[in-house]
Write a structure and sequence with these properties.
The protein is an alpha+beta fold. 17% of the residues lie in helices and 28% in strands. It has two helices and six strands, in the order ββββααββ. The strands form two sheets. It has a four-stranded antiparallel sheet with strand order 2-3-5-6, with helices on one face. Strands 1-4 form a two-stranded antiparallel sheet. Strand 2 and strand 3 form a beta hairpin. The radius of gyration is 16 Å and the shape is globular.
Length: 147
């Protein structure tokens, strides 16, 4: 597969819809395993106020034929920095876009958002039950605690 971003200078796309999520062949097709990406410093903008929003994202997936190429994922996630979107929209849109790109056996995303207006909003999406007989670690992101 010819990758367009890995090993090359690549700028953060202007928006998520302009981002290219690249994939690579799964070298262990037929072997069930879980892949986890953690993004502890995800940012987007409030669509009403334009103020920054921050989240800790945890993405777990069981690959089928393809893996997400990690640089393209970083660029895709970075593309949300200048986009106004509610927490629920960001979290679910990321999950759906990944599903469309790599068609995994299973995927879940946890968006652990820091408080906006004094209230944290956590958003969770998954495609269905986790595959049987496969260890999927808990996300274990502690709930927000004020100081």
């Amino acid at each position: 597969m010819a990758l367009k971003q890995l090993g090359k200078q690549a700028k953060i796309p202007a928006s998520p819809d302009k981002a290219l999520i690249e994939k690579v062949n799964n070298p262990h097709r037929g072997t069930p395993y879980c892949v986890r990406f953690t993004c502890p410093e995800f940012t987007s903008l409030c669509p009403i106020t334009g103020q920054p929003d921050f989240a800790h994202l945890v993405i777990d997936y069981v690959p089928k034929d393809f893996l997400v190429e990690s640089k393209s994922l970083k660029l895709f996630l970075g593309s949300f920095r200048n986009v106004g979107s509610f927490h629920e929209d960001c979290t679910v849109a990321i999950g759906l876009r990944l599903i469309d790109a790599i068609k995994p056996v299973w995927l879940r995303i946890g968006g652990y958002w820091y408080p906006r207006g004094g209230m944290p909003i956590d958003v969770f999406y998954q495609t269905g039950p986790a595959p049987a007989n496969l260890w999927i670690p808990p996300q274990d992101v502690p709930p927000y605690r004020g100081r």
